[in-house]
């Protein structure tokens, strides 16, 4: 009986061992399947991202080739006309002005491509200098004045909520951020619409710093929710923007976001179709010890 009992115990133990091994194998297989599924999902995500990036670049080259060709054709056409009217100063001057406008547009497109290339290669650095916010806003108005008049915009600059007017920042880059955003607003706002920038200083920064919000707003055509999800990705443009005659490389906002990030800030957007858009750039900047607005 003892032998039978002992054998029975051994059989039970063996059965328990087999069940344990089987359970472990099942569990390991389940983990392997989960890991394989997770790997497949990751590969699918990478594949989708690669496909999206490839499609974006194809769209970019299609758009930019169209946009580069447009001012080039204008330059060549008006140059030919200028040559044939070289003896008529008034007509010649008109053609030369149009050549200058097309040349500036062509240069801005090339600059966008070069800026994005420099940012992606890490060759853009931030250089802080002391500057005056009121002066910077005044310079913005001066630069944009001709476009404001040409499209009869209601243009506003509001710095009422600013206490520290003198700050330390990369003036060139801050200017570039605001010009990109305001330029976009003007591009997508019909004549007679409203475009502006409001600067707000918040009381959330430690001593020696100030938190600013630069809010660029317009009453333009707005954007779809779908497009806003990818608005800051390189080469992104709203569908049919080229067909509608609105030119651009799709790099301006990607460049803007990169510069804002390099300055330690953030950028957000709110928009509604046919009602307008609002971009908010949040930056913490060094303040000057020499002044505080009273």
Please characterize this protein's 3D structure.
The protein is an alpha+beta fold. The protein is 56% helix and 18% strand. Strands 1, 2, 3, 4, 5, 6 and 7 form a seven-stranded mixed sheet that branches. The N and C termini lie far apart (104 Å). 21% of the residues are buried. The mean pLDDT is 82.
Name some characteristics of this structure.
alpha+beta, 294 residues
Overall pLDDT confidence: 82
Helix content range = 55-70%
Shape: elongated
Low-confidence stretches: none
Number of DSSP strand runs: 7
Instruction: State Rg.
Output: 30 Å
Secondary-structure element sequence? Answer: HHEHEEHEEHHEE
**Kindly, what is the distance between the CA atoms of the first and last residues, rounded to a whole number of angstroms?**
104 Å
Strand content: 15-25%
Indicate the multimeric state: single chain
Largest sheet: 7 strands, mixed
Q: Structural class, please?
A: alpha+beta
**Given the structure, what is the number of helices?**
6
Provide a compact summary of the structure.
This protein is α+β, with helices and mostly antiparallel strands and 294 residues long. It is built from 6 helices and 7 strands.
Spell out the blueprint of helices and strands:
Blueprint: H1 2-84, H2 89-120, E1 129-132, H3 133-150, E2 154-161, E3 166-169, H4 171-187, E4 194-202, E5 209-218, H5 225-228, H6 252-262, E6 266-272, E7 276-287
Parallel strand pairs: 2-4
Antiparallel strand pairs: 1-3, 3-7, 4-5, 5-7, 6-7
Helix pairs in contact: 1-2, 2-6, 3-4, 4-6
